[in-house]
């Protein structure tokens, strides 16, 4: 059974794992610099510490993407407990789409109402196309 963990717990697991393996810088300052060096958004050492300790929650998606890139994990790691456990065990994450769907929803929250309407229209169009494609009789 998958155990539920907070964003802070998952980030702390990544930080501690990196320290143990020597794969990523150790201090919050070094983490901040490493994110900056990879072209990620500016994240202060204090902000990273607040995320890791749970004092700050619900970071904007571009921060989550930067952390995922730094630790070389899928973004879904932070939103899907099953993916997080598989990554932590060194297994390939499942591609079931649940984490991806949550990521899409989080990104959509940052859009204007008009942008969200456009995304919904696009989703409806893609869904209609896939339904039509799926319902086509196969030629035997």
Automatic annotation (TrEMBL):
<dbReference type="InterPro" id="IPR010982">
    <property type="entry name" value="Lambda_DNA-bd_dom_sf"/>
</dbReference>
<dbReference type="InterPro" id="IPR001387">
    <property type="entry name" value="Cro/C1-type_HTH"/>
</dbReference>
<feature type="domain" description="HTH cro/C1-type">
    <location>
        <begin position="43"/>
        <end position="78"/>
    </location>
</feature>
<protein>
    <submittedName>
        <fullName>Helix-turn-helix transcriptional regulator</fullName>
    </submittedName>
</protein>
